[in-house]
UniProtKB/TrEMBL annotation:
Source taxon at top rank: Eukaryota
Pfam families: VWA_3
Protein name (database record): von Willebrand factor A domain-containing protein 5A Breast cancer suppressor candidate 1
UniProt cross-references to PROSITE patterns, sorted A to Z: VWFA
Coiled coil: none
PANTHER family: VON WILLEBRAND FACTOR A DOMAIN-CONTAINING PROTEIN 5A
All residue ranges annotated as the VWFA domain in the record: 69-246
Length: 470
């Protein structure tokens, strides 16, 4: 629990800094199921969350920090000329992609190799093959990228990918592929299969440009290519996202990742999240799993996580209780449900399977986690009935409200003339004005006087029309 010092004045922002102890140590946390829910269901069974946030050996990181071949693939189809946020005042997607690529080019380590491809209905490259990164080659590339526009027609990404994968890799220079696109292609499955086939020699980092970028393509490229996906919109802090992906690309690839469970007889595990295919320093990897059944023999289980990094083998065995404390909340359950729902939604979009949709709806209703097939509804507290019918737009009479705030007579008249819904909207607006007024005046207040003023304002807002003003 955090408490403010006695007599604290609200004259500055309050910042809460949280520091993790042993932040890079893997953990396994178990959360008990909901007592009122039938065992054998996600919300009724215990759920375990395994968290990995590794720190790689400095000796390994230093050997690969200045090597690599970086191949950039930029979408120059006609749709890239649209606004990033569907607004006329926002920058276009091609402009956003150019800025992202320019920032990456200026941040590459000296001594690496690079090339830039762009595509639409056809494709082209700046250099015939990858060249060594130097001040001269960088300046040449920057000038050409600055002139790139959305003028190459459709979104045909498969052919340039085939060409890139057909090029021989440079010895001791692991190839990193960066893809920038806004579109949804008609052959997503074929594209992802190609990326998967070449994932042993290429890592793929994808950037979805604009709010309408295809998440199936962007996330699929990164997942199948062992990289990382980023969505870039006009309002994002682009530099942070770009540099994060570059830092991941400069890390050695983690290989042979495995997660194995050791549970006593009578207890089984159902993994809720997708298998871990990539591990990066600076990125948390999570595994959610449902534990079903009980055991009278043991009160503890374990999970073993193994992987290799640049020839260095790592393994972590994490033990966890099979009898966790109850009534600790359902946060981990809902996070696990969200992970499973998102995975099932992608499966449904790919296969159009009605059975998968039913499973998503059932899981969403059970866990209280929204999905693409469900939504939250409003229920009137007074009678417990669901509010039905189309949405109704109601204009709040702002001018009348302001007069009501300054005049008791007009305030009384406004209250009597308003319907129930208008009165609720009125009080909501008046409450906002009152609280804002309290905050403005609170810079010289102690906490006691501040809350006293709040209480007085609330009493004024929610008093009955027949009562006298305070």
């Amino acid at each position: 629990m955090v408490r403010l010092a006695a007599g604290h004045k609200f004259d500055r922002d309050v910042e809460l800094l949280i520091y993790y102890k042993d932040a890079h140590q893997p953990t396994a946390v178990v959360e008990a199921g909901q007592a009122s829910v039938k065992p054998g269901t996600l919300m009724g069974d215990p759920v375990v969350m395994v968290s990995l946030y590794p720190e790689f050996p400095k000796a390994v990181m230093s050997t690969v920090a200045s090597c690599g071949e970086f191949v950039f693939l930029l979408d120059r189809s006609g749709s890239m000329d649209c606004s990033s946020n569907n607004s006329k005042q926002q920058e276009t997607r091609i402009g956003n992609a150019r800025d992202t690529l320019l920032l990456l080019l200026k941040s590459l380590p000296m001594g690496c190799y690079f090339n830039i491809y762009s595509f639409g209905s056809t494709y082209e490259s700046i250099f015939p093959k990858s060249v060594e990164y130097s001040e001269t080659t960088m300046e040449e590339a920057l000038k050409k990228v600055e002139k790139m526009d959305a003028d190459l027609g459709g979104t045909e990404i498969l052919e340039p990918l085939k060409h890139i994968y057909s090029q021989s890799c440079i010895p001791n220079q692991p190839r990193q592929l960066f893809v920038f696109t806004d579109g949804e292609v008609g052959n997503t499955k074929e594209v992802l299969n190609l990326v998967t086939k070449n994932s042993g020699s290429h890592r793929c980092f994808s950037f979805g440009i604009g709010g309408g970028a295809s998440s199936a393509l962007i996330n699929g490229l990164a997942k199948e290519g062992g990289g990382h996906a980023q969505l870039i919109t006009g309002t994002d802090r682009m530099q942070t996202k770009v540099m994060q992906s570059l830092q991941f690309a400069l890390q050695p690839a983690v290989e042979n990742i495995s997660v194995t469970w050791d549970l006593p007889k009578g207890v089984s595990v159902t993994v809720l999240s997708q298998p871990i295919t990539t591990i990066f320093q600076g990125k948390r990897s999570l595994v959610y799993a449902q534990l079903t059944g009980q055991s009278s023999e043991a009160a503890e289980g374990s999970v073993m996580v193994k992987y290799s990094l640049a020839g260095h083998f790592t393994q972590n065995q994490l033990r966890f209780s099979l009898k966790p404390a109850e009534d600790t909340g359902l946060t981990i359950h809902r996070l696990g449900a969200q992970t499973l729902i998102r995975s099932l939604e992608m499966e449904e979009r790919e296969h159009q399977d009605g059975g998968v949709k039913e499973k998503v709806v059932e899981l969403s209703v059970q866990s209280g986690v929204s999905s693409s097939f469900t939504a939250f509804i409003a229920v009137m507290k007074s009678d417990g009935k669901v509010i039905q019918g189309p949405l109704v737009h109601r204009a709040i009479p702002v001018a009348m409200l302001m007069q009501a705030c300054s005049s008791t007579l007009s305030y009384q008249k406004a209250l009597h003339e308003m319907t129930g819904m208008e009165l609720a909207l009125y009080r909501d607006s008046l409450l906002q004005c009152s609280l804002y007024d309290c905050i403005i005046q609170s810079k010289s207040d102690t906490s006691t006087s501040f809350f006293s003023r709040i209480k007085k304002k609330l009493s004024a807002v929610f008093r009955k029309p027949s009562e006298k003003p305070l």
